[in-house]
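queue> pop job 88
queue> type: inverse folding (structure -> sequence)
queue> payload:
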């Protein structure tokens, strides 16, 4: 089995694959101050609750945008899963040309999402990942990573507003049902959360489609993807586990090619008098 970890600034998503099947997954708060043992014990406890045996894990792959946690997670993989973790980064075989000015600047999660989207849906395509930031990543029809756009996510935008506006208060992120709010709650939900970010997303995607073509597929993933996709004109597919699928695909692409053993059935002893029982005649060259 394969353990895949997507470490984001806000949340960490873990998934376990048996072959190509995702058999378990969890979403946790990213804890930058946890130790190797704390991460290891927590992960093993999750396995136990899911009825899985951590000893069956044969590989660990990690996509991380929190560099300070990499050494901790590397140690966790070695101590609790008896193996060296594969980190998505420079030098890894993604199978996708990176046409960024400096490929090392591209976040690991953006590459992983793009690899999975092209593998599953083809190209051209745009991935919209709703996380701490909202990432827009464009892939060409030939499977090349072209680049994208980044904007502040819904959560940190709300934090910035509420920290500066003394009379505003936090409200639930949901569709208020109308664009013209008749109270403060509905006004915030309409402008800051729902219609504001829906139109932001559609505006950027519309401009990308002008470059990539009208047949461009748009895939949403991340925490708020189901909410925004309901009102979006362009998000046609929601893929909750796109990043985990990308990690599995990249893991497979970085494994050495091995020959499949051919099962040979034991030969039966020839019967007396049969052609196989007679010695072969020599032939001259």
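queue> result:
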């Amino acid at each position: 089995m394969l353990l895949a970890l997507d470490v984001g600034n806000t949340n960490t998503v873990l998934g376990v694959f048996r072959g190509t099947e995702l058999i378990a997954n969890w979403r946790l708060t990213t804890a930058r101050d946890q130790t190797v043992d704390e991460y290891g014990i927590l992960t093993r406890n999750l396995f136990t609750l899911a009825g899985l045996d951590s000893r069956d894990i044969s590989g660990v792959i990690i996509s991380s945008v929190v560099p300070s946690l990499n050494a901790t997670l590397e140690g966790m993989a070695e101590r609790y899963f008896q193996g060296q973790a594969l980190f998505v980064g420079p030098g890894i075989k993604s199978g996708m040309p990176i046409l960024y000015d400096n490929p090392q600047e591209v976040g690991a999660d953006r590459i992983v999402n793009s690899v999975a989207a092209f593998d599953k849906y083809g190209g051209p395509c745009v991935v919209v990942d709703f996380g701490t930031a909202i990432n827009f990543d464009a892939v060409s029809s030939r499977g090349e990573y072209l680049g994208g756009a980044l904007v502040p996510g819904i959560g940190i935008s709300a934090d910035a507003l509420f920290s500066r506006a003394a009379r505003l208060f936090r409200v639930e992120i949901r569709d208020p049902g109308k664009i013209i709010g008749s109270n403060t709650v509905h006004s915030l939900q309409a402008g800051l959360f729902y219609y504001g970010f829906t139109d932001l997303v559609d505006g950027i995607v519309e401009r990308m489609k002008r470059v990539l073509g009208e047949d461009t597929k748009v895939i949403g993933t991340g925490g708020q993807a189901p909410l925004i996709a309901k009102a979006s004109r362009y998000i046609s597919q929601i893929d909750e586990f796109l990043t985990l699928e990308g990690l599995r695909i990249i893991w497979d692409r970085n494994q050495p090619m091995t020959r499949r053993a051919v099962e040979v059935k034991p030969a039966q002893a020839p019967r007396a008098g049969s052609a196989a029982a007679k010695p072969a005649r020599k032939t001259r060259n």
